Amino acid sequence: MKARNPQSSCRGTARRGADLRAVGRRGFTLTETMVALGVGMIVLVFVMFLFVSGLSNFQGLGNYAELSNQSRLTLDKMSQDIRECTQIVSCQNSGPVETLSLTNAFDNTQVTYTWNSTNDVLTCDKTGQATQTYLTGCDSWTFSLYQRTPQNNWTFYTTTNLAQCKLINMSWKCSRTILGKKINTENMVTAQLVLRNKS
To answer: With DSSP H G I counted as helix, E B as strand and the rest as coil, what are the percentages for the chain, rounded to 5?
Structure first.
């Protein structure tokens, strides 16, 4: 019986150990790399979608709150001013710039509202005061004049005679953008204001 060579056995064991270490150090194949990249891109796109969606919703809520607060404050200020006025001086309710001017004969003051469609801003000019910006991002501002006498169904007759105007019906629409686009962030306000001091 032939005796086994110890050195040959050691060399075989060492060779098998080297082969196992080489297998352990083997890198990813092209297929494995492509699959990993694909899964990573899908996860990244999903995370970005969640981030953009959350940001859009958060900004939308902020826009609604800002629009509601701005319109409420503007309506309060205009209601107080118009109700104290005694006469409409002039008005222009068509074109790129619309204006409405009223006067208060008791304290000899005048107030003028101006809406500019170029920059979507509604401003107010009062006697002895600096120009105030009431609305920003105002897409439209319209108003109609009505006389004192109502119809049988309690709706008022429109009038173009400023001396007969007793009631002003106005409405405006403001909006904000979300990531550069206007997406359901509009706020429409309509109000009927009476010139209480008009005789």
So the answer is: 40, 35, 25
pLDDT tens per residue across span 82-106: 999 999 999 998 889 999 999 998 8
CB 149 within 8 A of CB 157: yes
Q: What are the tokens at 120? A: 């979507």
Structure tokens at 156: 């008022």
Domain boundaries, the chain: 41-194
Question: How far is 158 from 167, CA to CA, in rounded Å?
Answer: 9
For residue 6, what are the CA distances in angstroms to 11, 16, 87, 99? Answer: 9, 16, 120, 108
pLDDT in tens, 105-132: 888 999 999 999 999 999 999 999 999 9
What average pLDDT does the segment 11-34 reach? Answer: 63
How many residues does this entry show for the chain? 199
Strands of the 165-174 sheet, one edge to the other = 156-158, 138-150, 165-174, 187-194
Burial (CB < 10 A; 0-12, 13-18, 19+), residue 20, is: exposed
DSSP state of 131: -
The CA distances from residue 33 to 27, 28, 29, 92, 164, in Å, are 10, 6, 6, 69, 82
pTM over 0.90: no
